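Interim report, section 4.2 (structural modelling).
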Amino acid sequence: MSKQDSLLRHKIIIQKLRSQASSFGEIQNKLQSETDLLDVDNLVTSLRTFQRDLLDIASFYGIEIKYNRSKKVYFIENDSEDEYNERMFEALDVFQALNVNQSFSAYIQFDTRKPKGTEHLSGILYAIQNKFQIQFRYQKFWETEEEIRSVEPYLLKEFRKRWYVFAYDLKHKEFRTFGLDRLSALNISSNKFQFPQKINLKEYFKDCFGIVGPNEGEVQDILLKFTSHQGNYIKTMPLHESQQIVKETPEETLVKLRLIPTYDFLMEILYYGEFVQVLEPKHLADEIKHKFQRAVILYQS
DNA sequence: TCATAGCAGGTACGTTGTGT
DNA sequence: ACACAACGTACCTGCTATGA
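Predicted structure of the assembly:
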């Protein structure tokens, strides 16, 4: 029984109890069926170990599982569906799937991609937690030369499967976002910094789309008309936390957003091509229109 | 009465030291 | 360089005391 199995067991227990309150026997049955399905070491444990699992789940994930004596079932008391835990379980799923059997490699095709800089995640996280300045080499997309940066790291941010660190650049004296995949020779210095009182990170990025900070423009109400097919997709994968479905018909889905229309957002709209129309604001609709017109010119000969 | 928690002991596995 | 024993650690189970 490895640590990995313990994590897997925790995940299955949480999933089982999220779907319904269950007795210890029912949980054991679930663990047994998952053991057969995943082809792993036996995940079924004794009651004593299960009780310890409950304590671990509470301390690791903050999910409190209680026992209902009269109904003889365990249930989750304070389920928050925490984003971090969800992502961790997701990673575990992938790890599990890839780890099951090497011979499955014939059935798995990876997206082609370059290194994502994830090896820096734990180092930067450590620096953020302990408020240490960091230095690193940084290469911008559009420049060939590397620069040495010295920054105060505040936040790790993920966007479109890439990781970024939001930080205060000590040389340029401003907040900047750095892509981890373009960063090398990371050094965590012993220089401490004070976290700026005036910034609330959740609030800071609330109206933003992508990695561009809020100093890039004003918050606006945006109304988009998607084809119903794309609309279904958008409903399951919201563009932004402010997203609201305003109207739905068999032909179209109207979506309202409230954010700063940054460059990243513009790119997102262009990505949906003919399947979306910007209804409001007009200047954004015009900008998209111009971009498409310029693109069309490329194909006229 | 029964869930819970503490403890002792077993097993598996990784690491380290030693001999060939 | 390799094999193997000794040791340490993590994690498990079963037993049992506790207390709501």
